[in-house]
Design a protein that fits this description.
Elements: H1 2-6, H2 10-17, H3 19-26, E1 32-37, E2 41-47, E3 51-58, E4 64-68, H4 71-74, H5 80-91, H6 96-116, H7 119-132, H8 134-147, H9 151-162, H10 175-197, H11 201-219, H12 228-247, H13 251-263, H14 278-299, H15 304-317, H16 320-328, H17 336-347, H18 351-364, H19 373-385, H20 389-403, H21 406-418, H22 422-440, H23 449-457, H24 460-467, H25 473-482, H26 488-502, H27 522-528, E5 537-538, E6 542-543
Antiparallel strand pairs: 1-2, 2-3, 3-4, 5-6
Helix pairs in contact: 2-3, 2-5, 3-5, 7-8, 8-9, 8-10, 9-10, 9-11, 10-11, 10-12, 11-12, 13-14, 14-15, 15-16, 16-17, 17-18, 18-19, 19-20, 20-21, 21-22, 22-23, 23-24, 24-25, 25-26
Length: 544
Amino acid sequence: MAPKVVGFGEDDLRALAGTRSFERGLGYLDAVSGLEVGEASVTAVVHGTDVYEVELTLGGDEGVSGWCDCPYGQEGNFCKHCVAVGLTVLRRVKTIPSQRAAARARASGLETWLSALSRDELLALVREQIAEDRELRRRLELRAAAARRDLGTVRDRIVALTDPRPFARYGYIEYADACGYARHVAEAASALRALTADGYAAQAVGLAEEAIRVLREAYGEIDDSDGVVGEAAAAVAEAHLVACGVARPDPARLADWLVDAVLDDGNDVPDLDPLDYADVLGPSGLARTRQPASEALGRRPSGWAERYLMERLVKAEGDVDALVALHAQDLGPTGATHLLIAEELESAGRADEALAWAERGLRECAAQTHIDGRLVDYVCARYARTGRAADAVAVRRDRFRLERSLAAYRQLRAVAGAADCWEGERAAALAALEEDARRERGGRYGGPVLIDALLDDGDLDSAWREAAGHADDRQWAQLADLSRETRPAEALGVYLRLIERSKEPTGTVLTSTWRGCSRLPVTAIARWGPRTRSPSFSPTCGWN
């Protein structure tokens, strides 16, 4: 019922957030307030370490997406606060239609009221708002200056907005002041967009370039841990691109500016992509950038900025072979560059060459314990698509032999299962892991991967046999959890051993490194109480 009303359900929230963030979001249900439901979005406030604003966009058949101004959310993640708001919506799903109707009624009522106001009443309302909202006043002042063609005032205001000095109390902008500076920079970006919209795109180009220069010089002295200044700077760069698209500045001048900006040894904020400017530069502008880009790459062949500029220019020209040749000059040891070449070739419709490059990457990186997993995924997916299941199994087998990780084991299991040969592959994989367990007595990954693999397979009997003398505390706890019903006595013994061990650092208090004991059912302990020396049980702490 819920998905039909709001376009998503709990499974969608879990898939977007991941299990950890979803479970943490459950603890924030009581922290959600100010829930407002619109036609295609939901907004709310969540009280956590700070007060965070959350917006969920309801996409109908496309599901749901979320935004939160917490640090994790600003990285583009569907955070625990988004989960809490989504779950709150689902718990109030019966009221959603009425809330949407109420929102429509409010919007309609506001529109009707505004339409009925006289000119003097509207002016009074605007004056009241700008007296209370400083940012609104500044935005309107900029629009007014642009309308009366007072470009000097506009320039002075944009320069003032991007000036970092008012926020740099000790010569740099601290974390606590970064958000304030970011708001100013975002306001400057808004003013630049408005300037373009009002017919002053050429002036907006010059002002945006000045703002970008200031931001690049200042960014190294800003604690932008949350990325808010970088996001605002990207808005300034976007405003510059839009203004260029309208004003169509001289391609040669724009080309020179782009080359200097990209090759600047300072900071790469905002990120400028020459490919975005290809239409504005045109053939003459692109040709203009080629010579300085080639010279810069010749002076510093391994320079990131130099390679990036040349790659983007070649890509803008559409010369796939030149792009492949450029990438091939600097093939990385993880296979990431081979994959990049393969993707470029596949995009150009040259699938056979793409696969050949990806296979070459596997061969040339075969001795590396850690290579780019996307390259392996790419090759295996193409093999599966063309009926080469045995080849996909061989690739996964080789990677497992090198990595000896649970992830590699799972990937081998997936392809071998699809190829109907998992039984034989599993026996060989477990034999290799058994040898690791005997040789390493604890392994490179905490407890032996062998135990993790058996637990992941659900082979608890084998896991019990191999655990003695090998498993670490985490694996013992997981094994006990999975065996409560089938091996209750052994599970109890594990829990008691882990409890005693967790008490060793202080002698009195359970440490926070293992909390599995609190999950043991009280009824299970009741059955063993008369036969064992049972510890006391606390409803809040578990076993003491």
